Automatic annotation (TrEMBL):
Name listed for the protein in its UniProt record: Acyl-CoA dehydrogenase
Domain Acyl-CoA dehydrogenase/oxidase N-terminal residues, every copy: 6-118
Domain Acyl-CoA dehydrogenase/oxidase C-terminal residues, every copy: 266-386
One family name in Pfam for this protein: Acyl-CoA_dh_1
Gene Ontology terms, MF aspect: acyl-CoA dehydrogenase activity; flavin adenine dinucleotide binding
Length: 407
């Protein structure tokens, strides 16, 4: 692994940091999350049109930049520093790779160029709170998490030449306003169950949810006889196909979800590292100014030791995140979850210490420290918790001689 960044990679970080410094301060973040969309459309347009972030890791043939997960992770690190709310995670990190991996040539040509330009936003709708299981981060990705029928979740049924979806998905990132929904649904009944992905444009009832971390807006998606298009070749899921074809179709969807999960974990780890690094910087600045007993509290050895421990933890998480991004490019699997666990732990610890070291002001809604604290708690609820990320990785690697470690 070459830990040296290229001039292009440094340029991405520098340009993005300069833009966010001007247009995404704490007050801008608060104003953006208070809107119906949950983010600033003007900032998203700048990120898409000026910097090409949605298409950063997409092939040039589809209007993308042709970079890798590493560049996307570096961009996410800068976005994490400011907690910039945007559709990037849901659209470019979760949905675009699924369309690229599973879509037909016609679907790719119709969707990916619009995603790359920022004109089309997308959201991955997974039933219940099974996002991390579906992505293969905290549990075995066997497809049963999709539910269906009386088991809840989302069910897909044939309707002539098309499909109809029934059910509900909660905690869908950007699900309240994304232009396109990628819905994981169960079909085939009890005899031939399979989990497939469907494209949904209009017809779903949506509502924005009240969340702990407002910088990650989430929505509830309700589907009642909603028309949908299978992501991929439709003949692979025809009711007349044999059992072997059923297995192939489901396996393709689950394999693609697991691969996306590993890359998404690396990007999320870098984003968490950016947030942890920024909140640590702000805390160091504050302890140099706040005085007790006639001197800055940053001069006390106990405070210095606490900050030094945080610095080491953040730097360790950064190394893990960078390695995970590199590993996904090199085709090495199973690294993203461990890097995400370390990064989430670093962010939670750093944000908690920031609140404590800021004293009374750190507990107020007016101070930005609480935004980072809620990001840390919210991400653990969505993508963790940390102990499950590590337990699943240990089980997959058979560190303890068996299968998945139960916690």
């Amino acid at each position: 692994m070459d830990a040296t960044f290229t001039a292009e990679q440094d340029g991405i970080r520098r340009t993005l940091r300069e833009l966010l410094l001007k247009r995404c301060g704490p007050e801008d973040v608060r104003a953006a999350v208070g809107t119906a969309d949950g983010y600033d459309p003007a900032l998203w347009e700048a990120l898409a049109q000026q910097l090409g972030l949605p298409g950063l890791a997409l092939p040039e043939a589809y209007g993308g930049v042709g970079c890798t997960t590493t560049e996307l992770a570096l961009a996410a690190e800068e976005l994490g520093r400011t907690l910039a709310p945007s559709p990037l995670l849901a659209t470019a990190v979760l949905c675009a790779p699924l369309v690229l991996a599973l879509g037909t040539p016609a679907q790719r040509a119709a969707l990916l160029p619009r995603i790359a330009s920022g004109a089309l936003t997308a959201a991955l709708a997974v039933p219940g709170a099974a996002l991390t299981t579906a992505l293969g981060l905290t549990g075995g990705n066997h497809g049963d998490w999709a539910g269906g029928g009386r088991a809840g979740g989302v069910q897909a049924r044939r309707d002539g030449d098309g499909w109809r979806l029934y059910g509900q998905a909660d905690q869908v990132l950007d699900g309240h306003r994304a232009d396109l929904l990628l819905v994981a649904a169960r079909t085939g009944g009890f005899a031939r169950p399979r989990t497939l992905l469907f494209l949904v444009g209009e017809g779903a009832a949506r509502a924005r949810l009240t969340t702990l971390d407002a910088t990650r807006p989430q929505g509830r998606v309700q589907l009642r006889h909603v028309p949908a298009e299978l992501l991929g070749a439709d003949e692979a899921a025809d009711e007349a196909t044999d059992e072997a074809t059923d297995v192939t179709g489901t396996l393709a969807a689950l394999t693609a979800l697991a691969a996306v999960g590993d890359r998404a974990a690396a990007v999320l780890a870098a984003e968490a590292v950016g947030a942890a690094d920024r909140v640590l910087e702000r805390t160091v600045e504050y302890v140099k100014q706040r005085e007790q007993f006639g001197r800055a509290i940053g001069s006390f050895q106990a405070v210095q030791h606490r900050l030094a421990d945080l610095y080491v933890q953040v730097q360790g998480a950064r190394s893990a995140a960078y390695y995970a991004a590199w590993a996904t490019v090199e085709g090495r699997e199973g690294v993203g979850g461990l890097a995400l666990a370390q990064a989430l732990e670093a962010l939670r610890t750093t944000a908690s210490e920031a609140v404590q070291l800021h004293g009374g002001i750190g507990f107020t809604w007016e101070h930005e420290a609480h935004l980072y604290f809620k990001r840390a708690a919210g991400d653990e609820l969505l993508f963790g918790p940390v102990h499950r990320l590590r337990a699943h990785a240990a089980g997959e690697a058979r560190l303890f001689g068996g299968g998945e470690v139960r916690v």
